[in-house]
Structure formats: C-alpha cells, structure tokens
Amino acid sequence: MATTITQATEDATAVTYAARVEHVSKSFPAPGAPGGRQLVLDDITLDVAPGEFVTLLGASGCGKSTLLNLVAGLDLPSAGSIRTDGRPALMFQEHALFPWLTAGRNIELALRLRGVARPDRRPEAERLLELVRLKGAYGKRVHELSGGMRQRVALARALAQDSRLLLMDEPFAALDAITRDVLHDELTRVWQETGLSVLFVTHNVREAVKLAQRVVLLSSRPGRIAREWTVGIPQPRRIEDGAVAELSAEITEELREEIRRHGRH
Amino acid sequence: MAGTDTDTDTASGPPKDASPAAGEPRDEQALAGLEAGLDALDAVRVRRTPLRETLVRKVLPPVTAVALVLVVWQVLVWAEVAPDYKLPAPSAVAEEVRAAWLQGTLLDYIWTSVSRGLLGFLLALAIGTPLGLLVARIGFVRAALGPILSGLQSLPSVAWVPPAVIWLGLNDSMMYAVILLGAVPSIANGLVAGIDQIPPLYLRAGRTLGATGVRGARYIVMPAALPGYLAGLKQGWAFSWRSLMAAEIIASSPDLGIGLGQLLENGRNNSSMSQVFLAIFLILIVGIAVDLLVFSPLERWVLRGRGLLVTR
C-alpha cells in the first residue's frame, strides 16, 4: 500500500480534519517474529476533527505512542496515509524543556523557529505564560520550577508553535495526583480558549474520560481500534463526578477484557 | 493501572491529604488559587553561597596546603638534606623573582609564553570545534577520523617537536603547529563526547519545534553539548600549555625570545637551580591561573544555569 504523509497547509476551508489517519499499519524489524517483523499497529483509521479533543487509550504495548509519533511526523508508517492540518505540536511525558534556557526563552525559541520576528517574541512569550497562569516565571530556569510548572511551560511552548493540532504523549503521567488533577482543568480551559484540536495518549481511563470528547480504545499487539466512546458529559467535569466514574468503569472493564485476552494463549 | 493514581514524582510533592478537591466548588478562581499554592509549595529555591563561606571553604584549604609545602621545604633546607645547588632555599627563589621583576623581564617571560599559548589555543578552538561537530554528526567522518583523534590525544605532543622543527624551522609557526596537534584532538573529542551525551529527548523536542540541520546544530546540539565541550576546552588548554612548554624547552633560538620554557632551559645551562625553580613555579602558576580565572568560572556558570551544580 502506498505511504503518504501530507502536512496540508492549503485553503483552510477545504480541510475538514485536524488529523486524518487512514489504514495505517506500522511494523518494526524483529528477529524471531514471523516474517522477521513485528506488527505494532494494524489498519488504524482515525479522524480528529478541528477543535476536537480525542484521547487514545490502551494498555502498555498497544502502540499508542508509536501512532502519536507517526502523526507527529517523527516516523513513517509502513502502510497507509496520515494527513495533518499543518505541522502538529507535540508534548512528551517528560517536559523536554531545554535546561540551558529560561522558561521564557524556551518559548521564544519555539517562536523563533516558527519565524516570529524578534520584537514580537518577548510579548508573545509573556502572553503564553500568562495563558498557562505562569506570569512572572519568564526568567526562571527549568530546575527552579516544580513538575507541574514545567509541564505548563512545556504546554506554553507547544502552543507557541501555533499548530492547529496538539499531540500529547502521557504528559501528566509523572506528576503527583493533585497536580495532575489541576493540570487537567488547566488543559481543558486552554483547549476551550484556543479552539485547538488535541490528540491525547494515556493509559489512565479516568484521565481519558475527564478530558475527552471522544475516547478511542486500542487493543494490544498489534494495536487496533477496539472501541470508541463519545463522552457527552458537559465540561467542567470532575474526576469524582458520578457520570465520569460510571463511564470510566465501563471502559475499564472493556480494557481489562482486552488485556485478559493476552493471558489466554 | 486504570484509574489508579500512582505518585511517581521524584520532587517533593505536596501532602496528599490536603486535597481541597472534594466538595468544594471548583470555579476559575479556586483553580487559580490551588495552582498558585502548588507552585509555591513545589518550587525549588536556589541559594547562592555567601562570600564568607566561599572564602572559608574554597580559599582557606589551598592556602593552607601551599603554606605547609613552604614550611616543609624550608625545614628540608635547614636540615641540609641536599646541597643548595640541588635544593635552593625558598628565599633564594624569592630573590630570583624580585631580581627578574626589578629588571622588568618577569612579565616579559610570562607574556611571551602566555600570548603564544592563548593564540595557539584560539586557533585550536577554531579548528577543533567544526571538526568535532563533523565527527559527531556524520557517520562516515566519525568512522574515518574518530579513532585517529582518540589516538592523537594519547600521543604526547613532545613527539611532534622534532618533525615540526624540520618542517617549519625554529620559529613561532613551529610552536603553533605543536600546540595545534596537542589541543585540537582534545577539543574535538570533548565536543564529540558532549554531543553523544545529549539526551535523545532534546533532539526529538528540537525536531518537533522545527530545529533541523544547521538550525538544529545551532539551537539544540551546541548548547546541549556545552558542558562536555567546556570539559574538552579545559583539557585542550592544558594540552596547549604543556605542548608549548615542551616546544620551548627543546627548541630554543635567540630569535624566539625568552618564554618560560627557555627560562627553564637557560637555568639548567647556567646551573642555577633557583632559576629552574622560578621557571617551574611560573609555568605552574600560569596553568593554575588560567584554569581558575577562565575555565572554572565558565564551567560553574554553565552548570549552575542548568541546575547541575551540586552544593553540599
């Protein structure tokens, strides 16, 4: 099958998706596996609409991070096509801020690489810091910030790329529970304010339900789309809300069933 | 896994039982307040050491050590363990310093060598940096030159003095050639090591931000490799200085002017042990001074900026 990666920048009205993943498969060379290759993703088809918040949920080894790397353009699919509306921004589990730059300069580097003129960079960086409620952190070094603050600066840096699609690879997995909870609300607020599309990878069911408009469950080895849920609960949601807990329980049961399948043979 | 909140944060997190989330209405302001509280609890405060503490902990020990060496030296002289043409008294060496100072030649000796050393080092910097970048980033160049650079680093640069004299004659360019052959491999290897140690995450993050090719080298690779690069520069300076001294001792000619190496060699020819000691001390002091005044502050500044400086 033909492999195409397109980062469309044409006429905005013609683009009805933030990301379009069609029949994408990915395999890696693996000595010992049948055919010498291990299939990681199998025939994934997934659309992220403009302004939509989608979480990609799955157990370890389901290839969700691989899929995100493909959408980010960091790797090529073995088959199928991926199209995105412009170049997506990417946030990692680790903050990935550059320690030789201050918080503000990290954001300015993203602006500079995007081609923003020098006099406009500083005010824009300040604005983005204010958006993630870190006014005054401009001159702080990365090691002077807490884990939650680092991820907020990383979010501001991702926003500085001015992409229409934000890819997030378990960005809050390494944070303590209460900080993570606060950052969920923060991300929801920023998403609503900016109208970004978000594709968010996680293995945490409640996180997926709390944040997303749509939850996509991937099966493991190889990764296939197992099921999708549309989350109709109005924002702001709370992790303790009955409706969130109910849907989480349903999805968790499905995910456990999915994992059990692997123990049977 | 699903739904469980495992706390894997290594930083000291806030107390978990203080969660105000339950029951409280979570409007915009409550969220902002909660966030401000978390930031205040979690933020790392960086303290600069006061000057007095620095003096006591960093200056006092080496001064004590030097004083102790002087005392032992003087005791050995008093005990007459060796005749004074083999072991001059500290006062004799001090007299040599005073005489050279009064003649106005002391600073000339030092400047002749230091200016050569610094110019040679800057040349080595200009050659070693692009070379290191090429070796680190291009597989073919690394395979071709990597082992040679490592080998050159372990070759004592004194070995280059005889061929350099034959090829270039007894002049300054011969000195620079010897310095370059000693320092360039160190600088290039330091940069290669620095680049190899860059966490792959920074390179991935750089690529998603659009820093590829030359822009990637300028904005991501070079700054990320700076600590290793600086270590290479430090070693490169040490190698420059040693190579230069070797070259000055072996190759002396009236046209070359008297640097510290020639001063040492002259002392030997005049059987003046105090002059030999003077030259050795000056060579040592210049080496230490450059390290202390240039490289150590630079290294500390870079490491402190990245939060890598361990303060005990």
What does this protein structure show overall?
The complex is a heterodimer of chains A (265) and B (312). Chain A is built from seven helices and ten strands. Chain A is α/β, with parallel strands linked by helices. Chain A has two domains: 14-88 and 167-265, Rossmann fold, CATH 3.40.50; 97-162, no CATH class. In chain A, the strands form two sheets. In chain A, strands 6-7-8-4-9-10 form a six-stranded mixed sheet, with helices on both faces. Chain A has a four-stranded mixed sheet with strand order 1-5-2-3, with helices on one face. In chain A, β2 and β3 (37-48) form a beta hairpin. In chain B, α4 packs antiparallel against α5, α4 (106-137) packs antiparallel against α9 and α6 (161-168) crosses α7 (172-196). Residues 1-25 of chain B have low confidence and may be disordered. Chain B has 312 residues and is an all-alpha fold. Chain B is 73% helix and 0% strand. Chain B has a domain at 97-305: MetI-like fold, CATH 1.10.3720. At the A-B interface, α2, α4, α5 and α7 of A face α1, α8 and α9 of B.
Q: Could you tell me which chain pair has the largest interface and how many residues each side has?
A: A-B, 57 and 50 residues
The amount of helix of chain A comes to 25-40%
Number of strands of chain B: 0
Mean pLDDT of chain B: 83
- Residue windows where pLDDT falls under 50 for at least 5 positions of chain B: 1-25
What is the count of helical runs of chain B?
A: 11
Report the order of strands and helices of chain B: HHHHHHHHHHH
What is the approximate shape of chain B?
flat
Q: Characterize the biggest β-sheet of chain A.
A: 6 strands, mixed
Number of helices of chain A: 7
Level-1 CATH class name of the largest domain in chain A: Alpha Beta
Percentage of residues in strands of chain B: under 5%
- Indicate the structural class of chain A: alpha/beta
Shape, per Cα inertia axes of chain A: globular
CATH class of one domain in chain B: Mainly Alpha
* Secondary-structure element order of chain A, N to C: EEEEHEEHHHEHEHEEH
- What is the fold named in CATH at topology level of one domain in chain B? MetI-like fold
